[in-house]
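Lab manual, section 2.4: Encoding a predicted structure.

Procedure: take the sequence of the chain (701 residues), apply the prediction step described in section 2.3, and record the output as structure tokens. A sample record is shown.
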Amino acid sequence: MRDRHPLVTSRRIRGGFVACIPFAAALAAEPPPTNEPEEPPIGGAPIAATPANLGAGVIRYEASFFAEFQPTTALDIVRRVPGFTFQPGDTTVRGFAGALGNVLIDGQRPASKAVLLEDVLRRIPISAVTAIEVIRGGAPGINMQGQSVVANVIRRSGNMSTLAGELTGLFATEHEPGVGLRLESASNIDRLTLNGTLNFRDEQQYGSSGKGELTRRDANRELYLSSGFETDWRQRQYQANGQAEYQGDAGLLRINLGGTSSDTKQYDILTPRSGVPQTFDWHITTDIKLDQGEAGVDYEHTLSDALSARALLLQTLERKIISADSIDTLNLQRSEDEALRGESILRSSATYRASSAVTIETGLEGAYNFLDVDARLSRNGTPVPLPAAKVKIEERRGEAFVDFRWKATPRLASDFGMRYEMSTISQSGDHDAKRTLSYAKPRVMVRFDMNSDIQLRGRVERTVSQLEFRDFASQASLDAGIINGGNANLKPENAWEFEGTIETRFWGAGALLLSYMHSLVSDVVDLVPVGDFDAPGNLGDGTRDKISLGLSLPMERLGLSGTQVRLNSDWSWSQVEDPVTFESRRITKHSPLGGNLLITKEFPALNSTLSLEDSYSKRETYFRIGEVRTEHWDHFFRLYWDWTPRSDTVIRMMVNNFTGRPRSRWRTVYDGSRASGQILYHEDRHIDAQRFIQLQIRKTF
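Recorded output:
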């Protein structure tokens, strides 16, 4: 069996280079303390959970550090790492590097897009984990992929085999129980590693289901319409995925294969009420079918002690069919939307470690993406013309990148890079169009250790967002009551991002992080008028700002043993010129607040853990031609008890949404365009999402 030494670097790169050499040089000029040791290699000699010298940029937590939390998988301990916020990545974006999260496994990122990083970590049993290393601001042999902090899961070497089963039941008062079944397998046999997952879920989406009301008030806020409102969501999903790794004498081969099939049904019902002048009687049924598959091959070859090369081939296919029927007193509407999409990625890279302080990585990525859409809408049996209803969008994209990582002093490290991408996007069907886009994307990251407790990090980068192919074609959403037109002239949003972070470690497992990011945005993607429809488009220049606070607070010194508080909060604001009123406003969907709070109390004598979690409220506002629409989700509370009666068995009892989280949609609808300022009515639709209990039993064999 191979020694899983994570010095092998991740070969994925987002690139970046900017002219801030004077700043780096000024920091480098500061004489390093003579008593600081050299930075240890990742996965090398153990580092204490509270190292004497945090300037190394790496903090190592042995698996035993998390024993009091009674974890069962790698995901459990990743979520418990002090001062670290798990980011699963975004599997919906095109390309490979942009889809990655902030967790490595033996120094590598998983060679899959369709399989969630959360699922990959869940199938690594705690018995297979040696340690977690928190890499802050870079370290030798590690490509940070633009992340300021990553967690590296170090797996054990040696032969082993585990099998785990998980049974979940969900129970609420008004619906049939939901059920989930999950099977996981992991084996190490000499040089071969195999792991896989089978997952089945059939459950009510209680967090989105509930009862409430819909009201409308005129411009003077006088009530003139009211109806009862109820929405129910239920989903059935089948999922299977697996991965094989083979460690040769000079190379590592990884093969992954997976697929998902799901069917989601949504029912929205408006029922008449007495005592008001007007009521609604309206039924909407929506059916969403999704089938997705992925296959990938990833090979890394060691050419010498200093040079290695890597190649990745990935193929994904997805078919999504949405059909909806809406019936009210005046109209019978039906919408059908079928979309077939696919992505093919070929990526190669080479890494040269010139010295213990300098690493250079370069490579190429090529991709072919397509989306074939057929959208239809009828009203009372008569087809409704939609712009760009039947189209095929294709993209051929290439990217070259180079990355230069330099540890200038024991206290100063930097990452300079450049990516250059070029893509050709063509559209055929109802509209024919073709254009070529190209962007240079420089980046620099700097890490400076002020002392053994405080680290400063800075980043300057030009980012380019990915165009959502679905925005090129029309979409009708009967449950939301909107129609978005397609826009063949949409350009990707790009921004210069300036970010600074200060991190301090205290009390052994305590950490406090404060960061600020300012973005100068060009070609802001928002909603714009396209004919008589709202459609995604570009508004010109804008700004985004965000302050982030992260806190891991062990409470022993405050007299509460076995208690920990974890807080993550984001405060955001933005500005752009509205295309209808020409006034300054927030960018569409840019939520002002986000984050969560987790309080955990350990009861070692009972082999139990009690946790209270609060997911913050979320608010997204959409500025359309004739209305302002806001979707609001209130705080979502969970209280759960984890009991480990045996080392191989964990039972979780969770009370979800015990406060009855309200979910609201507020609309201010105008008489014509918003530019007129003439309000037609205010609408408030809300539900109290259902409270439910979740019982989960996990057994490891």
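Check your result against the sample. The first strand starts at residue 58 and ends at 62.
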